[in-house]
Amino acid sequence: MSHVMKRLLAAVGAHPAAIELEEADEEKAAAAAGGGGLPILFVGGVAVGGLEGLVGLHLRDHLVPILREAGALRS
């Protein structure tokens, strides 16, 4: 799933940084993001969710504005 997420983000012009977590930290990260499991996308320090959340934002045309607001895209 993370490969699909990276491809979608690259398609809209963002270049995400992937952070590999130790097993003990995975549970903490998933809990911080609402328990949705991994991988989790954070934009500007805010958990957006996993693949479903990312695709949902993209389909509703909210992804690019959120990335721009976070400074992840150039205008």
TrEMBL record:
Species whose genome carries this gene: Musa troglodytarum
Chief place where the protein resides: cytoplasm
Signal peptide (residue range): none
Keywords: Cytoplasm, Redox-active center
Keyword Cytoplasm attributed: yes
Cross-referenced PROSITE patterns: GLUTAREDOXIN_2 (PS51354)
Keyword Cytoplasm: yes
Subcellular locations according to the entry: Cytoplasm
The name this protein goes by in its record: GLutaRedoXin
Family label: Belongs to the glutaredoxin family. CC-type subfamily.
Any single Gene Ontology cellular-component annotation: cytoplasm
